[in-house]
Amino acid sequence: MNPEGSNLYTQELEKALEAELMGSKGGFRLMDDCFKVKGTNLTIVVPMELDHHSAEKIRTGADKIVQGRNIRSIVFDFGKTNFMDSSGIGMIMGRYKDMRFMGGTVIAVRVNERVRRILTLSGIYKMIEIYEGLPQQSTLN
């Protein structure tokens, strides 16, 4: 495949992802606010409340990005998050399972005490590394 065709495919994929994530109301811009791709790393900036609604949007968007690109690590950034329910835990565990199957990694960063308690009680801390701040760059590779 030539580079122009590949670039065109990537642009079309990004447009389709953005359109789908905008939803029918057009006001929920997860592509700009939530997902950041740099190389093979996907950073997901978790919203203030990680409930069923936002977990489903993140799950859908992350899965499409992982399938469309060569993602090898997912970083969940909990810097803005102060609430998470069981659907958020399930979403994180699902991404962990997918990344592990593909030989990748998942970490959580900027985790406050409240979210850390939820991750600890759920057992996620046994599967992924959790950082209060930002980790060293070498942790992601």
UniProtKB/TrEMBL annotation:
Transmembrane segments: none annotated. This is Anti-sigma factor antagonist. CDD domains: STAS_anti-anti-sigma_factors. It comes from the Bacteria. It comes from Robinsoniella peoriensis. Belongs to the anti-sigma-factor antagonist family. PANTHER family: ANTI-SIGMA FACTOR ANTAGONIST TM_1081-RELATED, ANTI-SIGMA FACTOR ANTAGONIST TM_1081-RELATED-RELATED. GO terms for molecular function: anti-sigma factor antagonist activity. Residues 49-141 form the STAS domain.
